UniProtKB/TrEMBL annotation, chains A, B:
GO function terms (MF aspect): hydrolase activity, acting on carbon-nitrogen (but not peptide) bonds
Signal peptide: 1-23
Keyword Hydrolase among record annotations: yes
UniProt KW keywords: Hydrolase, Signal
Recorded coiled-coil stretches: none
Sequence ranges assigned to domain Amidohydrolase in this UniProt record: 74-550
Protein name in UniProt: Amidohydrolase family protein
Membrane spanning residue stretches: none
Pfam families registered for this protein in UniProt: Amidohydro_3
Origin species: Altericroceibacterium indicum
Gene3D superfamilies: 3.10.310.70, Metal-dependent hydrolases, Urease, subunit C, domain 1
Keyword Hydrolase appears in the UniProt entry: yes
Region (Disordered): 550-572
């Protein structure tokens, strides 16, 4: 096995490596720092990386460097921090979004048409052209665009493009035809088919519930699209300094994509996976979590469950009615028995359980369930609550019990604060995005982005966590600034905290002897910079397992998976 | 990666190994032989195995052995042949059959009840008790057994046991209740619910079409059952000297079971996998066959398609009607367009295609399709026809074209010859199980067992191939003996031929330098023994990748996967 793997690695990785594959590496002349889960920072000036990709030695100013190393990287005094962990992403979603057409920066219909046509020409093999982001207001069009206007860009393949708000879709004639939408098609419940004025003919735009008439016909991504999407997602993460993620809702298709990448040496970013359902969890893991695969790059930890919806669409399950929708308290997607049965099915085989809970009702219910489950499923379970956005102040102390992990996304607060105030009113904001209170209650905290909902940029997250202001510095002084956390705590929640939340402590997350050499060289010192400066951090280099996998100055990455598979995919 | 794997191997394998894991091994004092695809035999007296599990050197009588080896195995003059390849098995079927209760050796109802009760007590965790093989005639019962008689053995869990012929099932009261079968349940089409005399109450036995009323309620195997089944299947194969198989119809559940075994060091037998459907093929392989995984132990080669049924049930698609069912020509499960579309979908991404074809109509159709496809899909495709049982003599020459592989099962001939005569009549037997003619037509031939339909015993297959007689030597002189093959050809079809059929040549299948050290020590010389003697061969030792994985004198195998997963399956 060993020899074959060495062979495989030797074949695949050289393009990625400026250094010999297996040799001691000295990285010195650095302003190195690492932080533990408590937020305690340790500084160092150099490290030795063994031929196994792990840190062999951490050197401080007074330590003597080894004389005999095979590769030497001069840090030129730059700052080195641990690789960052994004504890809540939808990995394939990041990649598939990157592959689809983005019209959000177009300012006229003509510009959009040009961009659509160019995109279609660039991907002649795609059976459908999918995209998003258009906005007829931004185009100063004063009306919806038409199927005919889309046909002008792409006449020969179906095209379907979502509006910027996700509440309308623009189809060309081919797509309307594939969906069987004609003058005779009635508007579906909760939806509207825009019609050509003075006729019943569909005009091209489908609103809300009518979108599914077309979107249900869009074929699922092809395997080559999935492979390429994973490549794109990894590229994006590496450029942001993200070296490990928790993938929240891994389908069997996603998992097989991860394994294909692992089997062919193209899995770079570390993935802690949470299956999208109990059945996928069992299909993948069988009687328990998988081992760590591909040198700590992939593990099925457990399952992701959904207990409620989101705040914006009033799907978050609140204890009391929405301020802006009296009588509504959101959606409880699982009743108490269902939630406990699903948690129990996972826990009985030591799978880790991560439950999506946004409203205070949902959070209380998960905390109740964990409390009850903890009697049966003892030991180190690390129950996770994903988002934990709105928590009744009376429940915050309960986060500290049973080691319940709060997996939160700082940027959601700065993006959603105005909406949250409308939904909750002024009196229920005490437990909203309550990072400091939950941390102070003793809960292990892990930070993430929820990408592709938000950009997977941990530096934006750290800045938001420190200030509760957005990129424009709004609101001045921060929104409920009593819930900010220190820079050390924020960094810990993106490093050691994220590793702990995924049972990866000791493997990666901190720069210390025996751990994977996952680190970043960045252009400023996060311990000395202002929050707004931290937000602008440039990642100069990203290293994973002792190998440089991203360099801002040049493209050192693997080439994307080939679509041309004539010869190399033959029988052997 | 390397260090982790070494760590993993060191943790998992010692129990299996009488020798250091990584060191040169000398196996000498042997009557060694290997055969190439042409049937040419090479003899040797010793071999050196490198620390990678591959053959470093083959030594002949005059060669000097190396002085410095880490482990020495004295063959004591025994015969050594390559590990045998079974080119058509249902791997999980072998294991699941081994896990279910077998009543075929019971001679009274009381004995059966005792065996059922003991089995239920042995597997207290199984939610259902499943079994087969009962025969009320063998019990001299003169009637079907009853649900009450089964309740006497197992009252607390549902039980469902198939009759020896598969045409009836015996349920206990729990199973009848789960299935909702009551006095009010009508007999389904094509089936009969046995009733208690003088009443409408179900008696316990369900005939033919009524069996599904219960069997549809049986839950699929649990992951721990699948893991255990794979272990049992491997144990059985190793004891028969089978070191590699082609798995014909791998479901996604099967594949994940293989990977779990590979990931935890419990995959011993090499698997060349053919997905059970195009969609599973794409889900697993994505844009092409997987790489060889786990040091040549697992690869998704392609897909298995079914073109017709079987001869016994008159499902085989014949060119002319069945002799014993005038007007019937069997089942064509795919029309010509479907067959070509499915073959094309696989071939376009260089997946290998294996088509089940038993009747002469089906074989002609696959040969037609291959002929047409070969214009489009050039190169080394190795189209496989599985079974190729009944071939129109006019079509035999066509097997030689385009390298079409005939994957055949010698024991099917000896088991089925009387039935085949009835189905085909005397005039259509020329192309039946026509091993020699197909070989002489230039087709690469691979032999297998179709286990669990037949026992996975290659020595029985070699004997049948050489003689066309069964274990009792019937019929005297052999059935259509002109279709026997030489012992060398038979051995080649179980070794080098099987490797070639699965794109594994150069990796395993022959004992030569650079190939995996997969070999058997057996108690007789197949080049000198009679066919009936070969049939009685005892496998003394089975080695895979330079490691002894089976020894007839003692249990050196891995322990089975544990059901007790309290601590070791915890988070880390």
């Amino acid at each position: 096995m060993i020899a074959r793997l060495l062979g495989g690695v030797a074949l695949v990785l050289p393009a990625l490596l400026p250094l010999p594959a297996l040799a001691d590496t000295l990285v010195d002349n650095i302003n190195g720092m690492t932080v533990d889960r408590d937020g305690d920072v340790t500084h160092f000036t150099a490290m030795v990386i063994g031929d196994d990709g792990r840190i062999a030695k951490i050197l401080k100013r007074k330590d003597k460097p080894p004389k005999d190393v095979d590769y030497h990287e001069d840090g030129k005094g730059r700052t080195v921090i641990p690789g960052l962990i994004d504890s809540h992403v939808h990995l394939m979603g990041i990649g598939l979004a990157a592959l689809s057409l983005d019209l959000s920066d177009t300012h006229s219909l003509a510009e959009a048409q040009q961009k659509i046509a160019a995109y279609a020409a660039r991907y002649p093999d795609r059976p459908w052209i999918i995209g998003r982001g258009w906005n007829q207001e931004q185009w100063a069009l004063g009306r919806f665009p038409t199927a005919a206007e889309l046909d002008a860009a792409v006449p020969d393949r179906p095209v379907f493009l979502e509006r910027v708000d996700g509440h309308a879709g623009w189809a060309n004639s081919k797509a309307l035809k594939e969906a069987g939408i004609t003058a005779a098609t009635p508007d579906p419940t909760g939806g509207r088919i825009e019609r050509i004025a003075g006729s019943k003919q569909p005009a091209g735009v489908l609103v809300d519930g009518a979108m599914a008439l077309v979107s249900d016909d869009i074929p699922p991504p092809r395997p080559e699209d999935r492979d390429l999407a994973l490549y794109k997602a990894q590229q994006e993460l590496l450029s942001h300094g993200v070296t490990a993620v928790a993938d929240m809702g891994t389908s069997i298709d996603d998992w097989m994509t991860f394994r294909r990448a692992g089997d062919t040496g193209r899995l770079t970013v570390r993935i802690m996976s949470y299956a999208s359902s109990i059945s996928d969890m069992i299909l993948i893991g069988g009687t328990g979590p998988t081992p760590w695969l591909y040198d700590d790059r992939l593990r099925l930890n457990g399952v992701k469950l959904y207990l409620d919806g989101a705040l914006g669409s009033r799907g978050a399950w609140l204890k009391a009615p929405y301020s802006d929708a009296p009588g509504e308290t959101g959606l409880q997607l699982l009743n108490g028995t269902q939630l406990r049965n699903l948690m129990s099915r996972a826990a009985m085989d030591h799978f880790q359980v991560a439950v999506h809970a946004i409203g205070d009702g949902a959070n209380a219910e998960v905390l109740d369930a964990i409390e009850e489950m903890s009697e049966t499923y003892k030991g180190d379970r690390r129950w996770r609550i994903e988002h934990a956005q709105i928590v009744d102040p009376a429940d915050i102390a309960r986060f500290g019990r049973y080691g319940t992990i709060a997996s939160m996304q700082p940027v959601h607060e700065t993006s959603d604060r105005v909406m949250a105030e409308a939904r909750l009113g002024p009196d229920r904001l005490t437990g909203a995005y309550a990072w400091r209170s939950i941390h102070d209650a003793g809960a292990p905290v892990a930070f993430g982005s929820d990408a592709p909902v938000e950009a997977p940029d941990p530096f934006a997250g750290i800045a938001a966590a420190m200030t509760r202001t957005d990129a424009d510095g709004q609101p001045f002084g921060g929104w409920h600034p009593e819930e900010t956390v220190s820079r050390e705590q924020a960094l810990a929640a993106y490093t050691a905290g994220g590793a702990y939340a995924g049972f990866a402590e000791g493997r990666f997350g901190e720069l210390k002897e025996g751990e994977q050499a996952d680190f970043l060289m960045i252009d400023r010192d996060p311990m000395l910079s202002s929050a707004q400066d931290i937000r602008s951090t440039t990642v100069l280099q990203t290293w994973i397992g002792g190998r440089k996998v991203y360099d801002a100055r040049k493209d050192i990455s693997d080439p994307p998976p080939k679509n041309d598979k004539r010869e190399e995919k033959a029988g052997r």
